[in-house]
């Protein structure tokens, strides 16, 4: 039997495909933890007091490039299961996204931090209780916009200002994506509140896979409307 025939026959069944996906997710998780280790260590150790939110945001900033690389590795995983190289895909995505991804992550992260501080100190600021609703809506919108921007930057080669505009545009262009991203963020926050920041960090590739599936309408529309 030739090598080509062996490669064609390898991985045609669902078990092999599932094993290949698990291999990709585990590899991406290990590399994510490696790249994000300094920030994650401090993030897990910092107290949950609202006054620590700026420090937590600073620790979370390096997670952006690492998560972008996970998105790239999961999205661009090869169809040839005999030639799986998720580590190479991760590092390629990491190198490509690193120069601009901090610019993508910093604005929404800063906005979310300011809004979260205002929500946490609503009474001290002398604001009425009903302000909690609009502030929370703006916080969720900023977070979804940031996630959209991260997905677009990870998968496409747009300029940063175009990434920001497209991320805002698709908030209403694909409402199902916005709702799905908001639900995914709610799950991550719930896991953090119920257990620890470490729990969602250990599920990063699963979140990345779910995010890519949720974002399919946005990704397809981007390719159709903006990719020549």
Can you offer a commentary on this structure?
This protein has 228 residues and is mainly α. The chain contains eleven helices and no strands. The chain has helices spanning 3-9, 14-45, 53-60, 63-75, 86-120, 132-155, 160-173, 175-194, 198-202, 204-214, 216-226. Helix 4 (63-75) crosses helix 6, helix 4 (63-75) crosses helix 10 and helix 6 (132-155) crosses helix 7. Mean pLDDT is 86; it is low at 1-10.
Could you write a compact summary of the structure shown?
This protein is an all-alpha fold and 228 residues long. The protein contains 11 helices and no strands. The N terminus is likely disordered.
Low-confidence segments, given as residue ranges, are: 1-10
Structural class: mainly alpha
Count of domains: 1
Average pLDDT level: 86
Spatial shape: globular
Q: What keywords describe this structure?
A:
globular, 228 residues, mainly alpha, disordered N terminus
List the helices and strands and how they pair.
Blueprint: H1 3-9, H2 14-45, H3 53-60, H4 63-75, H5 86-120, H6 132-155, H7 160-173, H8 175-194, H9 198-202, H10 204-214, H11 216-226
Helix pairs in contact: 2-3, 2-4, 4-5, 4-6, 4-10, 5-6, 6-7, 6-8, 8-10
């Amino acid at each position: 039997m030739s090598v080509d025939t062996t490669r064609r026959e390898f991985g045609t069944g669902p078990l092999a495909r599932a094993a290949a996906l698990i291999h990709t997710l585990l590899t991406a998780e290990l590399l994510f933890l490696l790249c994000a280790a300094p920030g994650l260590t401090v993030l897990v150790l910092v107290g949950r007091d609202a006054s620590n939110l700026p420090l937590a945001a600073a620790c979370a900033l390096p997670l952006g490039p690492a998560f972008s690389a996970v998105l790239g590795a999961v999205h661009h995983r090869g169809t040839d299961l005999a030639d799986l190289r998720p580590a190479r895909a991760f590092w390629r995505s990491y190198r490509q996204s690193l120069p601009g991804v901090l610019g993508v992550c910093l604005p929404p992260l800063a906005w979310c931090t300011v809004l979260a501080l205002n929500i946490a100190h609503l009474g001290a600021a002398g604001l009425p209780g009903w302000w909690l609703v609009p502030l929370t809506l703006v916080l969720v919108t900023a977070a979804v916009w940031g996630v959209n921007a991260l997905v677009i930057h990870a998968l496409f080669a747009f300029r940063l200002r175009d990434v920001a505009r497209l991320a805002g545009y698709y908030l209403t262009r694909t409402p199902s994506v916005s709702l799905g991203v908001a639900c995914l963020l709610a799950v991550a926050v719930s896991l953090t509140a119920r257990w620890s920041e470490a729990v969602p960090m250990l599920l990063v590739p699963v979140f990345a896979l779910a995010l890519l599936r949720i974002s399919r309408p946005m990704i397809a529309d981007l390719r159709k409307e903006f990719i020549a």
